[in-house]
Amino acid sequence: MERDRTSSFPDSGQVHPSRNVKVEQMDRRQFLAASPIVIGAGASVASAQDYSDYTKDPRPDVPEGTCTAGSLDGEVFAGPPVVSGPGSDCVFILQPLQRTATGHLEYAVEDGEWNRVEALHAGMRPMSEHVLKFRLPLLPAGKRIRYRVVAHTIGWIKVRQFYHGVMQAGKPQTSSERAFNSLNPAAESTSFAVWNDTHENDETIAALQKQTTELKPDFLLWNGDQSNDCHFERDMSGQFLTPSGLAIADQRPLAYVRGNHECRGPAAWSLPEFTGSQNDEFYYGFRSGPIAALVMDTGEDKADSHQAFGGTAAYANMQQAQAEWLKQIVKEDWFKSAPHKILFCHIPLWIRRQKPGVFGGHSLCRKLWSPTLIDAGIKLVISGHTHTHHWMPIRDDQPVAQLIGGGPNPASATLIHGTADAKEIRLRVLKLDGTSAADIRLPA
Ligand SMILES: [Fe+2]
């Protein structure tokens, strides 16, 4: 392996990270005498530096030149990115990776110049094995936003001189240029597509993707239970960003909604790395034309004390926090001025049947949220979870209309297509063969 030995830790007073010894404490003659390494003729003097204690070799099992962490140079990108947010004040772009990499994002408004977006933390660019995630600055509404990701691999190579080897960067790679339209709160009309409970069913996802591409909605909302559980981080790009290897939201923003299955499994704590939403929480609001949308997180479908959660569940705290958040956000002008106000959440707030031990409709969320929802003029809840599509108009014991999408299997799956102008919102529940299972119109 070739590398420039003279460029690493030159004798200029830098501190070797593993031994905390300043090179300048030794003069060069003493230093060479102390060095056990002899490099062939022509090697620089500095190449003989050895600060390592080989009695502490952390990887005696691997030879020099072995990549012991990260990745060697090679293809970085693992499929198309996802634009998530979806409001133009909160857009993330997530790029799946197939090798450990670092990088940055570049974006341009319409045909303008490229701007660079970093994802820094404490002076460090991101380094990830699975996904790079960038938050864009405030975007102008209703504009075409072009973007691309620049990344390169990062790996550590075992060399004799340094206790944990040296970092090696791969060649920079630039992803294909893509574009999406930022949402426009002032638009006279808008449209959206809702998927729910896809549960990693490839046939269903492919059909939903095809329908969505043809409908060209302003945004896609994925209403929970994208997965069966979150067990391995290595699978999560495939579960949440490139399901079935498809580009689901590289050309339109995605509104992500967490389902109860995304609360499950040892990698469930890593979900925010693979999703993009305000403050990495799964409740937020946004405006698209005449629609004010709220997304809320119904959490699990059993009580926090259920033995299945092993003492890890505290969703009741989150539901209470959302109730307080809800009271504030409905006072904001962007929300109050919208002709149509919709809540998206995975578990319905009202379900007529009730399984023992499982929330039939999410009773705690209903109790905590519905007074504010009603006062604020929410006219519709769009949910999933039951795997059976169901239109539930207002009735005496259900003060807000509710539309539930279908299930994971192609026979039960649905796409909810919403279109709205200032006068009405129309909701078509489409089966995968394109036939309509319901056609609903709600006036402003
Ligand atoms: Fe569910």
UniProtKB/TrEMBL annotation:
Protein's name in the database: Calcineurin-like phosphoesterase
Pfam family membership, one: Metallophos
Ranges where the Calcineurin-like phosphoesterase domain occurs: 192-388
Region Disordered: start-end pairs: 1-23
This protein's record includes keyword tRNA processing: no
Compositional bias annotation for Polar residues: 7-17
Keywords: Signal
Organism superkingdom: Bacteria
GO molecular function: acid phosphatase activity
InterPro entries assigned to the protein according to its UniProt record, in alphabetical order: Calcineurin-like_PHP, Metallo-depent_PP-like, PAPs-like
